[in-house]
Amino acid sequence: MVRDTKLYDTLGVKESSSELEIKKAYRKLAIKYHPDKNPNAGDKFKEISHAYAILSDPEKREKYDAAGVDDAAFHFGYEEVHVDVGNKRRRKKERGDDIVHELSVTLEDLYMGATKQINLNRSVLCVGCAPTESLKTATCKHCHGTGYLTYNSRGYNTVRQVRSVCKKCNGSGDYRNNGCKVCKGKGIVNERKVLEVHVEKGAKNGQKLLFGQESDQEPGVIPGDVIFILKLESHDRFEVRGKNLYTKIHITLQEALCGFDKILFKHMDGRGIRVKHTAGSVIQPGSFKTIMNEGMPTYRRTEDKGNMYIQFLVDFPADMWTSAGNIDAIRGLLPGPSEEVTQEKDMVVDDCSLLDVNFEALRSQEDKSRQVHRTDMNNYEDIERVSKPAAAAVGCPQQ
C-alpha cells in the first residue's frame, strides 16, 4: 500500500517532522499565500490550511498516516475550519496589567512618615492546581492560536467571509484542560491581601509607591505591579510649596508695634515653636517672615529641610476701644500723620465720610451686573443684525 504524503508535501515537511516544525512551515506558507497578500492564491491557501488542520491534531494526523486523506473521517469540509491567519497569531500576554490606586495622605504623614494598611482584592493562581500540569497551556488546535475562525458563508452567486471568536479557547488562542474543583477550571481564585504601605518622610504629593508583581495573577503571565499614587489632603494651618511650608499667624497691633516672646504655633510633630520678636521692630500687616529649617524634610535626606514662611495678619482693635484721653496719649507716641494733598487755588473741597463695606457682597453684585450687561449687549447685536436692510436687488435692464 502506497502511503499518502500529500498533506506533508503541501506543507513541505517530512513525515517525521515535529509539531513545532509543522507549525513553522504552515506559518511561513500561510503568510506567503494569504489572499490579502496574494489574491490569486486562494486555492493554494485553502490547501495549506486544510493540511495544517489535520497534521497539527495528533489524533487526525495518526488517522491520516494510517488511512490517508480519503478516509471518511476527514470529510468535514475544510472551508469551515479555514483559519484567519492573515492576522498574525495573537501575541501572548507576557505581563499582566498594573493596579493603580490613589492613597490619601495628610501633611503630617509626609512630614513625619506613616505606615498604612491597605486591603487589596486580587486574583491569584489556584493552589489546588498550580503545582500540577493542568495549568500548562497549549496552542488551541481549533484556531491555531489566532483566537478567531473565519467561515466562508455561501449565498446566491456570492461567497462571504465571516469571522467569529473561537469557542474552544474563547478567543485566547490557548487551550487548558483543567478540571480543578477549587477554581472550576479557571486556574485563578480571588484573594484578599493586606499591603503595608510605608510613606517615607519628605514624600511628595503625586509620588508613586510601587509594589512589584503584586497585581492580579494569571497562568503563564508575569503579574503586573500595584501602584499607589499619593494624594495630599488640604491642611487647615499649613501649605506646602516644594520643600517650604507656609502659614498665617494673627497678632495684635500691640505685638506688631511692641514685639512679643511666645509660642507662635504648634508644629506637625507636636513641637511648640517659640519666637521672640524685638520691640520696636515693626511687623507690617501682611508681611512675611521666615524661620530657617522648619519646612518639609527632603525625601531620603531628612536632615535637609526647607523653611517655614509666616505671613503676619495684624488684628486692629475694634471701634471705640479706648477713651478719648488715651487716644490723645497714643497719638503723641506714634509717628505723625501722612502728608496731606496740597489744596490748590480755586480747588473745591467736599467733606465726605468713610462707611463700612462688605467687600465680598460688593464683588458678587459687580459680577452679576457684568453678566447682565453681556446679555444685553448680545441682544443688541442680534437686533442690529436683524434690522440691517437687505441689499436692493439689481434687475437686468429692459431691452
From TrEMBL:
Zinc-finger listed as a keyword: yes
Sorted UniProt keywords: Metal-binding, Repeat, Zinc, Zinc-finger
Molecular-function annotations in GO: Hsp70 protein binding; unfolded protein binding; zinc ion binding
CDD domains reported in the protein's UniProt record: DnaJ, DnaJ_C, DnaJ_zf
An individual GO BP term: protein folding
Domain CR-type: residue ranges: 113-192
Keyword Translocase: no
Pfam families (alphabetical): DnaJ (PF00226), DnaJ_C (PF01556), DnaJ_CXXCXGXG (PF00684)
Every J domain range: 6-68
Coiled coil feature spans: none
Start and end residues, zinc fingers (CR-type): 113-192
PANTHER family cross-referenced by the UniProt entry: DNAJ-LIKE-2, ISOFORM A-RELATED (PTHR43888)
Protein's recorded name: Uncharacterized protein
Organism: Umbelopsis ramanniana AG
Native organism taxonomy: Eukaryota, Fungi, Fungi incertae sedis, Mucoromycota, Mucoromycotina
